[in-house]
Automatic annotation (TrEMBL):
Compartmental location: Cytoplasm
Source species: Candidatus Avoscillospira avicola
GO biological process, one term: tRNA processing
GO cellular component: cytoplasm
Binding site for ATP: 57, 61, 116, 150, 194, 236
Coiled coil: none
Enzyme category, top tier: transferase
UniProt-recorded name of the protein: Threonylcarbamoyl-AMP synthase
Length: 343
C-alpha cells in the first residue's frame, strides 16, 4: 500500500484529504500531544478491524475514541456522571482518557467486547481539525507495532507503519511524550487504570479520593485480569532485556556503573552521562525535569533497537507527578525486573 506523508505545514486540501481517509474507512497516523495514534473511524467495524491487523494487536484490547470536545460525550456514552464534565472542564483538550458506559452506536469491535468505552479529547490542533472535518470520532491506539515503544515523532510512525496504512500526518514531536492518564469513572471511588501525561495529583485535586489499580505499580501474576486490558501485555520493550535500577539517583548511577557489562546500554539522567562514556547511552533528561523525561523515554527505548547491546540498565524517577508515568513505562519495558541500589 502507498502511504501518504502529510508534511507541515498542512494545506486546507491536505486536511480534507486526511479527513477523507478517515471517512472512507482508511487508516491514518495522527499526532497528539501524548504519542502518535493509529486512527480510523471508531464507528466503522471494518476500519477498526484494520487497526488491530496493522498493529498486530490482540482483539480484546479496546481502543480509545478521540473527540473534539466534551459536547460529543453523550453521543457515545451514557449515565455520564458530573465528574466527567468537571474533568473535561479542567483537563480537556489534554492527556486524560475517561472510561464511561458505552452507547450501542459504539461497536464492540472498538471496545474489545466491553460495555464501557474510553474517550479523550487530544490537545493537537491538526488532529482536532481532522476529527471535526471527518465528523466521526477517531478510534486510535498508540501508533506503534504491538509491543514496541509508542511513537513520539512522525519518523517513529514511519518506522512502524510505512506501507501498511493510508497516511501519516506529521504534527511535530509530541509535547507530552507518554500516553494519556486513564481514569475509570464507572466505579466508586474512580480508579486510575494507567498513569500518564496528567499526574494523579491533578486528578485527586478535582475528584478527591482516587483508587490506583494494582497493574499500575506491579506485575500481575498469571491469570490476574487488569481493568485496562492493555496493561497485561508486554509493552514498550526493546529487543535487549531491560533492568530498572531504583533508589536515589547518585546511588542508582553508581550501581549501574559498577555492575553493567562493557557492551551494555544505559538510560541515565543527564547529570550522570560522563560515568558511562564508551557505552551506548541515552539521556533521559535532567533528574529534576520530569516533563523532559516523559518526552524522551520512548525514543530512548526505541533507539536501542538500532544497536546490538546485550542488555539495558535504566535509572528511574520517583513516583511523584509525571514520575509515576515515566517509571511505569520503564518498568513495563523491563517486565518489572527491578533492582534496588542500596543506600
Ligand atoms: O495518549 C493516548 O491515550 C494515546 C493517544 C493516541 O491518544 N492512545 C493510547 O491508546 O495510548 P492505546 O490503545 O495504546 O492504549 C489504550 C489503553 C489500553 O491499555 C486499553 O486496554 C485501555 O486503554 N482501554 C481502552 N478502552 C478501555 C475500556 N473501555 N476499559 C478499560 N481500559 C480501556
Ligand atoms: Mg499503546
Amino acid at each position: 500500500m502507498d502511504t501518504i506523508l502529510f508534511s507541515q505545514p498542512l494545506s486546507e486540501a491536505d486536511l480534507d484529504r486526511a479527513a477523507a481517509i478517515i471517512r472512507g474507512g482508511g487508516l491514518l497516523g495522527i499526532p497528539t500531544e501524548t504519542v502518535y495514534g493509529l486512527g480510523a473511524d471508531g464507528l466503522n467495524e471494518t476500519a477498526v478491524l484494520h487497526i488491530f491487523e496493522a498493529k498486530g494487536r490482540p482483539q480484546d484490547n479496546p481502543l480509545i475514541l478521540h473527540v473534539p470536545d466534551a459536547g460529543w460525550l453523550p453521543k457515545y456514552c451514557q449515565d455520564i456522571p458530573a465528574e466527567a464534565y468537571a474533568l473535561a472542564r479542567h483537563f480537556w483538550p489534554g492527556p486524560l482518557t475517561m472510561i464511561l458506559p458505552r452507547r450501542e452506536i459504539v461497536p464492540l469491535r472498538t471496545t474489545g467486547g466491553l460495555s464501557t468505552v474510553g474517550v479523550r479529547c487530544p490537545n493537537h490542533p491538526l488532529t482536532l481539525e481532522i476529527i471535526r472535518r471527518a465528523g466521526v470520532p477517531i478510534a486510535a491506539p498508540s501508533g506503534n507495532t504491538s509491543g514496541r515503544p509508542s511513537p513520539t515523532t512522525a519518523q517513529h510512525m514511519v518506522e512502524d507503519m510505512w506501507g501498511k496504512i493510508d497516511g501519516i500526518v506529521d504534527g511535530g514531536s509530541c509535547g507530552v511524550g507518554v500516553e494519556s492518564t486513564i481514569i475509570d469513572l464507572t466505579v466508586t471511588p474512580p480508579r486510575l487504570l494507567r498513569p500518564g501525561g496528567l499526574p494523579l495529583e491533578a486528578l485527586e485535586a478535582v475528584l478527591g479520593e482516587v483508587a490506583v489499580d494494582k497493574a499500575v505499580v506491579s506485575k500481575l501474576s498469571d491469570g490476574e485480569k487488569p481493568k485496562a486490558p492493555g496493561m497485561k501485555y508486554r509493552h514498550y520493550a526493546p529487543k535487549a532485556p531491560v533492568t530498572v535500577v531504583t533508589g536515589p539517583a547518585e546511588q542508582s548511577a553508581a550501581w549501574i556503573a559498577a555492575n553493567c557489562g562493557e557492551q551494555d546500554g544505559v538510560i541515565c539522567f543527564s547529570e550522570f552521562l560522563q560515568l558511562f562514556s564508551g557505552h551506548e547511552v541515552h539521556d533521559l533528561g535532567p533528574m529534576g525535569d520530569l516533563p523532559e523525561q516523559a518526552r524522551r523515554v520512548f525514543d530512548a527505548l526505541r533507539r536501542f533497537d538500532e544497536t546490538d547491546v546485550p542488555a539495558i540498565w535504566a535509572q528511574c524517577p520517583g513516583p511523584e507527578g509525571l514520575g509515576l508515568a515515566v517509571g511505569n513505562r520503564l518498568k513495563k519495558a523491563a517486565g518489572f525486573h527491578l533492582v534496588e541500589a542500596a543506600p
